Structure formats: structure tokens, C-alpha cells
Amino acid sequence: MGKLLLWAIVIVGALLVARLLARSARVNNETPRAGSLPRKAPPPPVDEPEAMVRCAHCGIHMPRSEALLINGETWCSSEHAKLGQRQ
Asked: Cα separation of 32 and 27, whole Å?
């Protein structure tokens, strides 16, 4: 009976070691296996912040690339440029 118990412990130990080795090989492998979730890609790099400007008519702030620059003033739209600076 003792020899049977010893062999059962040896077999279970060998299976445990084989499972641990398979798991570490899977983690080190870059290709995901079938049925596993794909790894997330790193987030895209963030662009540099853009300078904000203020509309001379309504006072709204917007990125400089979206503003209209007319006669040295910044405007949010052509309608506000036509209306002119608010008093």
C-alpha cells in the first residue's frame, strides 16, 4: 500500500511540474494560443498640446488650428468675424 501511495504522489508531482512548465512556455510565447484573449496594444502616443485662443466676439476658447485669424484678431466663425468685436 505504501508503494502505491508513493507512486501516486510521484505521478501527481510530475503532472504538476509539466503543467507549470507549459504555463511558463505559454506566457513567454508571443503568439496567443487559440481561444485566448489577444493582448492589448499599447495606447497611441498623445499629440503635443495645442495653444488655445479666444474668440474676440463671444469669448469661447478653441484650439489655434480651428480659429480664424482676420486682421490680427481670432474668431470662432466667419459670422462672428463679420459682427466684429463685442463691446
From this structure: 9
